[in-house]
Specification:
With 106 residues, the chain is an alpha+beta fold. 39% of the residues lie in helices and 29% in strands. The strands form two sheets. It has a three-stranded antiparallel sheet, with helices on one face.
């Protein structure tokens, strides 16, 4: 892993979503950011994720394939999608320490 990849990895959010039945989903990067938005907001559109995410539909599809229940509502004259998380549960946002923070803690 290059030094740049290591720094980028530590800047990405990492989350664990636990459903009421006990199933867990762990994501980092864009999927983690999208899951945080879905959990914290009533609904999410592509507009809410710009400029850091330009293919929200692809991420939603992947998260559905993982087993999350995400509802899509098509609205407006130009038929844009609004997504809502229907799986009930809790969200844990992990703080990822950088290498320098890990060394200072040791």
């Amino acid at each position: 892993m290059s030094a740049l990849q290591g720094k980028t990895r530590h800047c990405q959010p990492q989350v664990t979503f636990t459903g009421l039945e006990g199933r867990k989903w762990c994501y980092r990067g864009k999927r983690a950011r999208v899951l945080i938005l879905l959990f914290q907001c009533e609904s999410v559109t592509q507009w809410d994720t710009l400029p850091w995410h330009t293919r929200l539909g692809g991420t939603i599809h992947a998260m559905r394939c993982d087993g999350l229940d995400i509802e899509t509502e098509i609205e407006g004259e130009f038929r844009h999608a609004r997504y809502r998380l229907r799986t009930k549960g809790s969200l844990l946002i992990h703080r990822i320490r950088s290498e320098s923070e890990q060394q200072q803690a040791a």
